[in-house]
Structure formats: structure tokens, C-alpha cells
## 1
Amino acid sequence: MCGIVGYIGASPAVPYLVGGLEKLEYRGYDSAGIALIDRQGIAVIREKGRIDELKKLLGEEKNESTVGIGHTRWATHGEPCRKNAHPHVSQKGLFALVHNGIIENSEELRQELMAEGYVFSSETDTEVISALAEKYYDGCPVRALMRTAERLVGSYALGVLCRDFPDRILCARKGSPLLLALDERGGLLFSDKVAFEGLREVYRLEDGEFAVLKQDNITFLDAMGRNIDKSPSRLAGDEYDAGKQGYAHFMLKEIDQQPRAFSRTAEAYLQGEDIVFPGFSLSEDQARSLDMIYLVACGSAYNAAAAAQYTLQQIVNLPCRSVIASEFRYTRHYIGKNTLCVFISQSGETADTIAAMELARRQGGRTLSIINVPDSTMAVGSDGVIYTLAGTEIAVATTKAYSAQLAALYLVTAYLGKRRGELSEENYRLFLNHLKGIGAEIKGALALRSRCESLSRIFDGQNDIYFIGRKTDYALAAEGALKMKEISYLHCEAYAAGELKHGTISLIEEGTPVVAVCLRKDILKKTVSNISEVKARGAFVLAVTQERYAPLFSEADEILAIPDLADEELSVPAGAVPLQLLSYYTALRRGCAIDKPRNLAKSVTVE
Ligand code: G6P
């Protein structure tokens, strides 16, 4: 979603700001802009649409300023257009700022300021911040920002320029991430460290903190204006595996990286036959006294949770519920000190998942987050954390982070199963052996790439596609449908195969494509009869199964068979591959913006 960059140094700021915004493109946005400052004042250049549009405007403008802020906006308050794009400048031109987050009391503040004669020039919630800063300005911009912050309800990460102080960028944070760095380039500001390559260490602004960023130093302040000592966190060297490396799209590259993403995550926590999570542990007593497990997440992370729920419940022998975070946070739950609440998120910044985590904490639950981005809000805000090691994921539609989430959830399953005495020594060892083999199984499934490319012809030109399956196959069908709809813009629905007869089957007509996911023997015959039911109504069926079961799908029009799997309870990571590839090639045929689908954001930082 919205992204912030800022630069203050000795070189012209524009290349740093535009370069940073381009790196943030993957998060999703619909307008972009920058503000530059020097002794002559503040200049703002912003435009609706892609960064290329902004670049066209910048091409005509020669600005050598060495200080500036930039923003990619994903519209919430006010349509995507030039006047609503950030940065927003206050009426007298004293302040220009970029904002991530949402100001919930913006309407009241707007009315108050208008009554005082302030004239707004956009429909955004953000503009009240620049207006308030100007109102409270008494010659000290930090004081003005602090007084402004006191009036704001909601979330914000802010990068602020003040016309009277062209040698600094002011920063503030509440609820939305904001990071700073100092290196040979100068002072850098960003909401996502992907913005700048080669970062070695970063400072993370915490809620309620402020910072003054200069070319060669940063001052951190608390809400009372007192100085804070802050140490930077070091970044691992390979965190940013830059570029498409010869692939046409990041998504295809990331699909191919899945064997590594899965195996790195699974193996990082294996010490011989022990599973050791540096950020999470439960004694046997604690594990045995657990009363329930919640798995809470959004999007594909939720689909990973939904798949793992079956496996956890089966192996750990506890009630286990997967819940969509935006539902979880507004529903009554039965959470006590023995309830394990697991929050799964690639970014660690998804607003609904963060809010659900805070709710579980307040209710006294034991919180564990499974996160891909180190030091993200969720990673530092839960009782325990397990990092997935998928590396940086750029395509909005997640693939390798989803696989790595499954690896972490399977590890948690084995960990709890053993400690609760539900997995015998022998079954535990077998489970770990199967886990170690999944990287190779994913690789085997990747060999179906050209077959998926050719089968994608089935979907092009269709209006609706149905995905069906049972148990983990159903969770996989949900992920397959989500991947397909988000990047190809075709309407897709996932259905529990047994539920078809209760509604969806009335939509099946001659030629309607149905993807039947059936990787598990225990429900195979049942799904095969569902295939007969839709075939009888004219459906075109593509069955996704294992090679050994392919002969049983004589009624299917096409079969996509992955190499045989060792453990069908753990079939989701390899089974996901053909579904991802089908959606990729369908979107490619349809000429869609695969890495940056319309209206979507990589990291959904608003409710
Ligand atoms: C967005 C992304 C999805 C992702 C979901 C949850 O919708 O496009 O790919 O699954 O957010 O994000 P998270 O960072 O919490 O995993």
C-alpha cells in the first residue's frame, strides 16, 4: 500500500526518491509524488497513475535540491487523482508532508479548521495534518508536529518538510512502520526497506516517537520532546535478492524459488531431530495444557492457515480454528492463558492481523507470529516469533512466502505433536523426514510448467471458474482460486466439493471450467463423484492430482498430475505449484499486470 521515501544528502534527491518509489511500486498504488526543498522553498511534483507519469513531469523540471520526500498512494479517502496525491502542502506553503495510515477523526478536524478559515485543496484525511502543523507552528517545526500528533486519532507514518528548515526531514510514527538509516548516501527515510538497496542497518521508529533526520545525524525524541537513545538493527546480507534475474515477472521467479523458500524455513529450525525456534518455546507441560489453537491471517496467509488447520488438528489433537483476521477482531472468542493464537503474515504489517493480535494479547492469550519480514510490527509485538525465510517477495500475489508459511506451520505441528505426546518418536521422525523432502516435491511439481502454460488456454475467454476440493485440497482450491482471480481478473470461486449440491452446481453449464483438486486418497472417491456430478451438467473438468491417481480420473477432460508425494497430509506446498502456474499463464495470455494487479496492494496497512 502507500509507501514513503525520503532523502537528505549531498547529491540531487530526485534519483534517490524516484528510485525508492519504483522499488515500492510492488506494494500497490494509484498515484505518486515527491516534494523537494531548498532555500528557495518547497516544490511539489505529483501525478495520478504510475511512476512513469511522475517521471514525465520530472523530466521537464530541473531540480538540483538535495533534500526531499516521496510517496506512492493507494487511495482510501478521496479518489486517485493529482490533487489527492501526496505530498500535501499546507495553505501558506510552510509544510509539505507524506503520510501512510488513516486519520480517523479527519472529518472533525477538517470542520474545525474550515471554521477557522482554512481552505483545503484535497479530499484526503492527510491534509488535516499539514493544516494542523501550520496552525501550531511557532518557529519550531518539531513542536508543531508534536502538537499536531496530539490531535490525531488513527495511524500515521509521516515524513515532513518545513520551508524554514531546508536542512532536515521531520518524522513521526503511530501504528504505521517508518524506518531511517544513515550511510554514505546521507540520511534515508522509508516505510519499507526494499526502497533502498545495500542498507546495512536501520533505525526503527516506534509508536509515539519523532525523529529529525539530517544529512549526517538523526535525533530521536519521545512525545515529550526528550531525546531517546536508539540503536540500529543490522540487516542480513541476502535479504534483498534484487531484480528479476532473467524472468519476465517477479511472480514467476518467486514461484521457482519455492523449493528454497520452503526448505530454508523448514531446515533453519531443525537441529538434528530437535525443532528449536529461537523466538518461541513451550515446555511439555505448557504444550499439554493448551486448550485451543487459533490461526489468524488475511489473504493467502489465511489460506495457508486454513490448510494447516486440518494437519494441526489431526496431529496435535486439539481444537484448532483458522479465522480471517478482519472477522476475528470483531467477534467474541474464548481465549485464556492456555490458548495459543498464531498470527501469520508475510509483511508483518497487515492492519487487521495486527489488530487481531493485539486483541488476543489483551485477552491473555499466548501469541505467536509467523512472519517473513524481520523487525516488522507483528514480529516485535508478539510473545513469540518464527521467521519464514522466503527472502524478499515482490509480486503482489504471494507464492514463495505462502510456501514458507506452510513450512513454519508444519514445524509448529511437529513441535506441538511431540511435546503433547501425540506423535510417537517414530511418527515424529517420519514427519520430519517428509518435511525435509517437500523441497524436492515442489521442484518436481515445477516441471509441469509448460503443461500449465498450455492448459491455461482453458480459462482464457471464460467468465467464471470453479475450484473444488475436500479437506486440505479445499484449502488449496481456495488458494488456487485466489491466485487466479487476483492476477487474471477472472471470477473464481472455491467450493468444498461436498457443498456443490447446495447451491453452486446450479451455475454449472456447458463448458464451465471446474478445477478439481484431489491429492488425497482418503477423500479421493468422494471428489471423483463430485466430478461426475459437474460433468453431468456439462462442466469442463481439469483434475489436479498425483501421478499415481491419474488413472482414476477418467471422467476429467484434462489431468494435471504432480509426481507422487510421500505424505498426503503435507500435500499443499507441491499441490500449490500447478495452481500458481495456471494462474500465471492465464494472466499472461490476458495481458494483465501480473506483478502489480489493479487495485491490490502487497501489504494492506489499513483496515
Ligand atoms: C495482500 C497480499 C496477499 C497477502 C495478504 C496478507 O492481500 O496481496 O498476497 O496474502 O495481503 O498479507 P500478509 O503480509 O499479512 O501476509
## 2
Amino acid sequence: GDKPLVYLDNAATTQKPRQVIEAISSYYEQDNANVHRGIYELSRRSTRDFEAARERVARWIGAPDATEVIWTRGTTEALNLVASSWGMEFLKEGDEILLTEQDHHSNLVPWQLVARRTGAVLRYVSIDEEGRLELESLDALLTARTRVVAISHVSNALGTVNPVKEIVERAHAVGAIAVVDGAQGAPHLTVDVVDQGCDFYAFSSHKLCGPTGVGVLWGRRELLEAMPPYQGGGEMILEVEKEGSTWAALPHKFEAGTPNVAGAVGTAAALDYLEALGRDAILAHERDLSAYCIERLSELPGVRIFGPAEVMDRSGVVPFNLEWAHPHDVATILDTEGVAIRAGHHCAQLVMKRYCVSATNRASFYVYNTRDEVDRMIDALRVVQGIFG
Ligand code: C6P
């Protein structure tokens, strides 16, 4: 269109800074070779970049050791890895998996699949009017049969920042492991997996200014050691015999096939970029925009805003509905005004069901957004109001 773009769909994916694009093209121009295989200089360089990126990620999330950092295609694959490998090995009939109504499908469906195959039972933590997990119900839901508690650090459909540390402690108290979907956490909050105490933490590079198709699973060493491989292939074996094989050491046991080396390099560049901005500054900026957005939205008639009223309990995600216009119509008209927001169920249909809506509008902010852009969205919503209101 002829209107300058206002991009407010950062929870879906972020735009890429020049530093990231240049790191990727420079890798392809100068260092490209397969990793961990060649005996020649170029492959050593590629392997060095790939492993340095792993170290970079370890620092970003406070992982004690980079060999606990596994490259995946993204959050979705990371969570499927845990459910398939850990779940299929350690869950049995009657065991309980505790999920939440708040979670993204990628932290629900893999566990549903494993439950069907193992006979494990699914339980759900409900959410209150403001989109917070109902932690009072944890006492009843966490039992000696609970083996896994899977939660998100931050909800993509509500913006709620969850008290992960407290939930992890309570999961551990009954002997369950805690799996944290950090897709909306790692890009926005300081993450320290040791302090948080979780057993697994997953996130995607593309939501923190990095490239698509690459992400991370961090896992606690003892658990990763005890788990069988997720996929078989090159890179992940020690010795192959006709009857079976032995596995490579961590992290390679979980990295079958040629990895996304350029993706790893781009991820490291993205983390350097964000670190230079400062993680506290990023979160403060997002919260300022959320607060401003909520304030400006409240000027409109018939507006319903989802998620916690307290802005310190949310990140840069503002879901809202307008009584007088369907979210898909809102997003379509906003698009003609040059404003990109997301409308739909946000892969969190349990959240939609909880609030009896089929869809919501969602504005989500990142480091480069401004208050002026929020104003542009409000102006565009006035155009919608002129048509439907
Ligand atoms: N949420 C959104 O618009 P992938 O697709 O694997 O990179 O991430 C999946 C995922 C998992 N958990 C949470 C909390 C997420 O927000 C997402 C991706 C996007 O909200 C696309 S549905």
C-alpha cells in the first residue's frame, strides 16, 4: 500500500535488524561448510561459528553448560522433542500431565499425542477473568501421579507473565518435571533457567529478531542424558551396527542431520543486538507501549481488553475486541490503513473458549515500535468505527 507500514504483529514474528541479515550473508559468503564433518579449514570455521552461537544462547538463558543447548527448528519442534522423547520413555498409564488453558497449541497437542499413546491422563489449570493461571487450584491438581507440568513463560494470547518459579517449585514438590514454553518469554524477559528451576525451556529465534526455522531447547543434563534420541540420522550416533547403534554425546544426540548453521549464526547476532539494547530497557519499552495502547484503546466504545489489568504482569501483547466489529474485519480494514495486527485464535483455542469468543485482535510490540505507531493504530480503528460503529 501507499501508507507507511506499522508492524504490530511481533508476537507472531519480529523484523530482522541489518546486523542479523549481514551475519547470515557473511556466514554464507565466507564460512559456509558442513559442521563437525570436514577436516578442512572451512568446515572448522563453520563449526566454530555454530558452536559459538550455542555458547551465545547458553549465556542468554543462563544455561550452566552449552552442551545442554539443543538446536531445533523452533519452539514447536523443541516441545515435540520433549513430549516424544521424554514422554514416550517415562510416562505410563495413569500418570498425569498437567497443562493449562492458557497455553499455545504447541505446548498442548504434543502432550495430547503422548497421552493417547501412553494412557497418561491430561489435567488442566484454568485461567481467571484477567488471564492469570488459577494457582489456588494447583493444590488439588498436583498429585503424586503428576509427572509433567507444562506451562508458558508468557501467554501469546493474553500477554500474561506467569509466576514460573513458583509453579516449578510446586511441580518439583510432587516429583513432576516442569516444561516451560519460552516462545514469548526469551524475547522479552530476562531468563535464567537455573534461577527459574525449570527442567526444559524452549524458544524460537524468529521472535527475537533472529531468522525463521531455528530455535532452542534447553534441558537439564540428567534428563537429556536419560532420554532416547528424538530423530535418527547422521551426526547423532557414536557407532552404528546392523542391530542397533549407540548415541553421540550431548547435544549431538538430539541433532540428527545437517543443522541450520546460518540460523544459529543469525540467532547469535540477534542476541548480541538485543543485549546491546539492554533487556530491562526492552521490557520497559514494551510495557510503556502496552500501557499507552491500553489507555488509548479505552477511548473507544465497546472495547474489551484481555489479560491482566496490571501492566507489570504483562509483556508487549495487547489482545482486544470491539463489540461492534469482528476481529477479522478489524484486521482487514487496519491493513488497508497500513497497520498490521493479528486477528484469530492465536493457536490458543482454549483461551478463546474460556472467554467465549471465536477470535481476538492482537497488537504486539517489540524494540522498534513507538507511541506514534500506537496512535496510527487508534486512528485506523476510528476508520473501522466509521464503517461499523
Ligand atoms: N506464536 C503467535 O502469533 P514456533 O511457531 O514454533 O516458532 O512457535 C510456536 C509458539 C509456541 N508457544 C507460544 C507461546 C507461541 O506464541 C508460539 C508462536 C505465534 O502468537 C504464532 S501462532
## 3
Amino acid sequence: MTFERIGVVGLGIMGAGIVEVFAKAGLQVIGVAESESAVEQGKKNLATSLDRAVSREKITQVQADEISSRVTWGTDFELFAECDLVVEAAPEIIGLKQQIFSELDRVVKPEGILASNTSSLSVTAIAQSTDRPEQVVGMHFFNPAPVQKFVEVISTEKSHADIVAAVTELARSIGKSPATVGDKPGFIVNKLLLTYLNHAVRLLDEGVASRETIDSAMREIAKFPMGPLELLDLIGLDTSVEVLHTIFADTQDPLDAPASSLTTLIADGHKGRKTGAGFYDYSNKHEAPTSADDDLKIQVHETLMKAYLHTARQMNDSGYASKSDIDMGMKLGCGLPEGPFETMSHFVA
Ligand code: 3HC
């Protein structure tokens, strides 16, 4: 199987990031969104990311122009006709994804592979809307897609082993570190990550600590690159809630139901960075949160870390994923300095 032409549906931050990853790797990319304005936003997202790379001297302006020239943009799914692979990065709404896959099934050449970048929806349910479920997989990237190296390649009962192997090899060839995963709620990283992030919101809701104390505790003591509330803003509160609904539907554990500020903020139109506000306001440059309450930071870190390590252990015990895949996922998908099983070897509460 060769991959020369890749399609991407949905051009938000994640979709545009996926466009960038493939175009940087030298592939021809077709980016499609539902409207001209969404296409313009996708172009802008790519340009901002490339400008950042040029200003940091990661690539030259000539390379940035070459990357941009490999991308064709549009609103018409027919543009995908000759694609070897199409990756869907639309919002987390099962009906919408099924509609997109049914349309992709109609327009993409018969041997083309269809992949969803879903954060937690059932890839099996998405594949059911096509007549080629054996050629449907999940290809799950992490924010920001050009930075995070981890990719989950999700196979369903119907996915053909050769297709899964080819997509895994493709991920490797574009510089990512893939792991193959079954179609389980939250896959590897989101199951562990969102359970931890939701726990942090509960601490905020219960008045245990301020947002700054919670975030600085995990930045400063755990050395995570971002605090949990800032990270929720980056992921998007709506996406985060959708992942939690999927996890909760599986576990029925009240602790996995979305914590109340998540739903309140969304109801007020605050979905995180993409709407300009979430737990924090992004109208000005966002600085790393600080707090002088050292004792409380220690307490918050202990509480969150203990529960996070417990979830990781449970995931491994129940056969969700291997220790090494969980560690790799958290390090290469979320930029953590070490994986939970490495942390366990020295964490003392
Ligand atoms: N697009 C492209 N590149 C970006 C970027 C963006 N939006 N943001 C940062 N970068 C690059 C920078 O250019 C820089 O690259 P360099 O090291 O090669 O120069 C590097 O990332 C570091 O950037 P900064 O120095 O500006 O900022 P930080 O050091 O604070 O890092 C971060 C920013 C990479 C976002 C880091 O804070 C991080 O890794 N945070 C954790 C993010 C995370 O957990 N992501 C996974 C979320 S779960 C998910 O996405 C799955 C979904 O299904 C929910």
C-alpha cells in the first residue's frame, strides 16, 4: 500500500495540524471543510503554525512555502476521489461523523482507507455507516498535532490487519510513534488523561483550591507541561465532555461524569481557547498560572497524582493497554516528563 495523497475533513486546530503533519512529510494533502469561512480558518491555522516554526528557525520560509504548496483546499468531498487515505477531524458528534463517512464511502476510490481522528467515539459505529468497514480505522492525534509524537491507530473487529499495519507504518514514516489499540472507550491516553482532568475540575468545584493553585501544583511539582485546567482549555471543554460521556457510559462511575463547571462553562459559550475563554480568559497572552500556597499545592498534587496512578494501574490490570504503551502515550501524546508507571517507582504520598 502506498500513500501519496491524503485527505483531511475538518480544519479546526486539530484538522489543520494533521494537514501540516502530512504536508511536512512531503505528501500531497487535500483539506476540506464545510464552508468557505471554515476553509479560510483552516488556512489561517496552518499559516500561524508555519510562521511560528519559521520564527523559531525550525524551518525556512522556503520550506514553509513548499509545505503550503502541497495543500489543496476546498469545500467539496469530490476532491477526495483519488485519496489513498482520508482522515476525518470533525466535531465529536456521532451522527455527523457517520454522515461524513457515508459520503466519503461514496466518493473515495474503492481501495481508499478511511480514518477517524475521534477522541473517544466508537470507531466501530462510525465504520458501520460505510460499505467498507474493513478499510476503516481510528487515527488519533494529540494536540498540538505537529508537536506531539504519539498516534493511536484504532482497529475495530472488522478492520483488516493489513490496513491497520499500513496506517501504523504510515504514522511511523511521518515521524510519529504509533501504538495500535482496540476500539475501547477513551482508547489509551484519553481514558487516563480525561479522568485525571475531570478530577482536577471537581477539586475546583468543591472549593478545595483555586484554578491557579491546581494548575501550578501539577506544573511545578509533577513537572507536567500544563496544569489540568489550562489543558482542558487547550483540548476544548466540549470535546472533553464528549470523551467523559463515553467513559462514563462504560464505567457508570459517578466520578467519571463531567464535573459541573465543565458543563456550566460550555452552557455560557466558553469552550476554551477556541472561543477565547474557558477556565481562563485568552484575550491577552496566557501566562503560566502561579500560586504562593505551597502547602495546598503539595496536597493537590498528592490527591491528583494518587488517583491518576490508580487509574493507570486499573487500566493495565483490566487489559486496557500495556504499561509501556500507557507510559509512551502519556509522554509522547501529552508531553509528560515520564509515564505513570515510571512515576510509580518513586512517588511517595
Ligand atoms: N502548533 C504548532 N507548534 C506548536 C504549537 C502549536 N499550537 N504550540 C507549541 N508549539 C511548538 C513550539 O513551536 C515549540 O517547538 P520547538 O520546541 O520545536 O521550538 C514547542 O511546541 C514548545 O512550544 P512553546 O515553547 O511555545 O510552549 P511550551 O513549551 O509551553 O509547549 C505545548 C506548549 C507543546 C502545548 C506543551 O505545553 C504541551 O505539551 N502541553 C500538553 C499538551 C497535551 O497534553 N496535549 C494532549 C491533549 S489530549 C488530546 O489532544 C487528544 C484529544 O483527543 C482530546
